[in-house]
Specification:
alpha+beta; Aminopeptidase
Length: 190
């Protein structure tokens, strides 16, 4: 039996965000019995990007990236139980690292449950952050991990063309709605 293709993208619409949140709710609240206010902690709309994985069109995984000045933080990685072969989580994490590198970030961190350290170490250069203590929240033990990123030649930066900067998150290579509007002459004199 062939496995279904995994599609990973930035959640940009309300339905896509709801799908990402539904996966998180199933995993963290449903399986791990995390209290609602700890899972939905006030950071979902504060400088965060949500990533959604689908298999056969169905939402099967999600993660959240929060953006800080010198680093990004990969968090809330969730994969529905029936899809936990490691493929979905790896696809989500690889997508998040590539997105962060394209934005010019050189460092990504994560707070992961200790039981997941072997998986994260296999995830392309992710290492336990030296000298950092284990910590606890929502009834689990965590450790901090870090990965160095290498921004590509076409990383988003100060010299990126203005219309590229106006495109939706992660879709910088695809003309957006404002690219089409740029073809019209300016008619507003004010």
């Amino acid at each position: 039996m062939r496995s279904k293709a995994i599609e990973v993208e930035v959640a940009r619409t309300l339905p896509e965000l709801m799908q990402a949140f539904a996966v998180r709710t199933l995993v963290y609240i449903g399986e791990q019995h995390c209290p609602h206010d700890e899972e939905y902690d006030g950071n979902d709309f504060s400088g965060a990007t949500h990533v959604l994985a689908r298999s056969g069109g169905e939402p099967v995984g999600s993660l959240r990236i929060r953006w800080f000045a010198d680093f990004c933080k990969i968090e809330r990685v969730a994969v529905r139980r029936e899809h936990r072969s490691g493929r979905i989580a790896a696809a989500l994490i690889d997508f998040a690292y590539a997105l962060a590198a394209r934005k010019g970030y050189r460092t990504a961190i994560g707070h992961i449950q200790v039981r997941l350290v072997p998986f994260w170490k296999r995830s392309g250069g992710t290492q336990i952050r030296a000298g950092r203590p284990h910590f606890y929240f929502s009834d689990h033990e965590y450790v901090e991990v870090v990965r160095d990123l290498e921004p590509p030649q076409d990383a988003i930066g100060l010299d990126t063309p203005p219309l590229v900067l106006l495109r939706p998150e992660g879709a910088w290579d695809e003309p957006g709605v404002l690219d089409r509007s740029a073809a019209r002459p300016a008619t507003n004199p004010i």
